[in-house]
Design brief:
Blueprint (H helix, E strand, L loop, with lengths): L11 H15 L2 E7 L6 H10 L5 E4 L5 H12 L3 E4 L6 H4 L3 H19 L5 E2 L11 H4 L3 H11 L3 E2 L4 E2 L10 H12 L4 E7 L6 H15 L3 E2 L15
Parallel strand pairs: 1-2, 1-7, 1-8, 2-3, 4-5, 6-7
Helix pairs in contact: 2-9, 8-9
């Protein structure tokens, strides 16, 4: 008789379950996004991201100073993504008309391109794409018109599905900021997290290490937003 070879029985369902769990964990993506900077709080945010080897997306406003230019350059150089959040972030100005919005928007685009060489094609509308503050300046139908115009120009807007609330009553409450993010992210596979690095949001940087650690413990890895990323849009383009 020839040699007989005996192979251990493989529990296929068990292996498949492990593969499925691994694949699920690998597919959980968190996009940290920071609005309203650069400001004096931005360097601390960048330091923490660098320390924890995390990339993020910065929806910046206009800061045509040496320190502003330095922050734009650093954001780009350290592998983060720049997004356009309008130059002025002035609701009464940008939301008067489609023309007012595009002029303000393009002013920031020119500044970013001249300083960093980067032309970003991603937008976050101040207040979100479904904001109501625009109603008092340009009417209830203004946002769909702006979104249509910017979409036709090739830009993509991103809203969020996790709100840290660090720009509201959580500004000085680190624990609440962390809790907001981790509670809302739980049970989701893909999250776009709304955070702020504006001048008033001093607690955001202090909350950031716990946010990163907590999201990682939930199985998330971090990416920057690009033209091909998950799109969360309150009002579709």
């Amino acid at each position: 008789m020839g040699n007989r070879f005996f192979f251990p029985k493989i529990k296929v369902p068990s292996i498949l379950n492990k593969i499925a769990k691994y694949s699920s964990a690998q597919s959980k993506t968190a996009y940290l996004t920071f609005d309203d900077g650069p400001s004096s709080n931005t360097p601390a945010v960048l330091d923490i991201l660098k320390e924890h080897n995390v990339v993020a997306t910065f929806f910046v406003t206009g800061n045509d100073t040496q320190s502003g230019h330095s922050m734009y350059k650093r954001i780009s150089a350290e592998g983060h993504q720049l997004g356009n959040h309008t130059y002025s972030h002035n609701y009464s100005s940008i939301y008067k008309s489609v023309k007012s919005f595009t002029e303000d928007f393009l002013r920031l685009e020119r500044l970013l391109q001249s300083v960093t060489g980067v032309r970003t094609m991603i937008i976050r509308y101040p207040g979100g794409s479904n904001n109501t503050v625009s109603h008092r300046y340009g009417g209830t139908g203004l946002m769909p018109k702006i979104i249509s115009e910017m979409s036709n120009r090739g830009y993509i807007h991103f809203d969020w599905n996790v709100d840290a609330a660090d720009a509201t009553n959580a500004i000085e409450n680190k624990k609440l900021i962390v809790s907001n993010v981790l509670t809302q992210a739980n049970e989701k596979n893909n999250v776009i997290v709304l955070l702020h690095d504006g001048e008033a949001q001093k607690a955001t940087a202090t909350a950031l290490p716990e946010i990163i650690k907590g999201l990682r413990s939930q199985g998330f890895h971090f990416k920057v937003l690009t033209n091909n990323s998950l799109r969360i849009q309150f009002i579709k383009a």
